[in-house]
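Re-running the complex after MR caught last week's input typo. The corrected sequence lines follow. Everything else is unchanged.
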Amino acid sequence: MTCSLSEITISADLEKLYLLNGFIVHYAEASGCDMTGINRVLLAVEEAFVNICRYAYPGHKGEVTVSCCLENGSLVVVFADKGIPFNMLSVPDPDISIGMDERSPGGLGIHFIRKLTSSVLYSRENGSNVLTLKFSCIRTTE
Amino acid sequence: MIIQTVRESAAMVVSLSGRLDTVTAPDYEKKFDELISREEINFVVDFDKLEYISSAGLRVILATSRRIKGKNGKIHLANISGNVKEVFEMSGFAGIFPVYGTVAEALKMITG
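Corrected-run output:
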């Protein structure tokens, strides 16, 4: 998919989160998200970004390019990194019904991404991991 | 994120404002480490001014709560609403923690 309205390339480093947030907020607003909707978008974006920072480049530094576009009123956010092949969608959802003591901390991030997007796709393209998140902010109030 | 603490007779009230995310989660952990090392064992965490939480935030809340529980302490959460409430519900954390409408109520349940 081409999603080239605007893009940002940053190092896959947790400290860059707010730089990324600032970039995303602008397009989330343009797609009609209210504050609640913006925070939902930022949550899915944070979880995707954190996964890339943690797993894409084991032992060395790398970059991630994030692009945004609006498609039929939906906000589309695409993450592309040149890290090791990693499909975060292959991570199973956590069991969210179990108590504090048995809880393992993993898997919540991808669970949130699935819950907050209208669609999420992974592909491996020309040596890059490409994760495409689509949001529709029309249904921010329930 | 800003973390404020007020010592009430029943518990230490820890008020969060801003965003509890990947960047600020270590601050939460650090604050609780410091409080626990001062022999505090009962806590009420006030979420009234917290606008946003991610899985990194939930992770430190879980880890900290286990430590408090391990010391036979209590941690109650209060004033969870908006985006934060949604995240608590999506994650199942709403069922793990005692959550109260107000700090006063949460404090009362600690004494109780």
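None of the earlier attempt is carried over here. The first strand of chain B starts at residue 2 and ends at 7. The mean pLDDT of chain B is 96.
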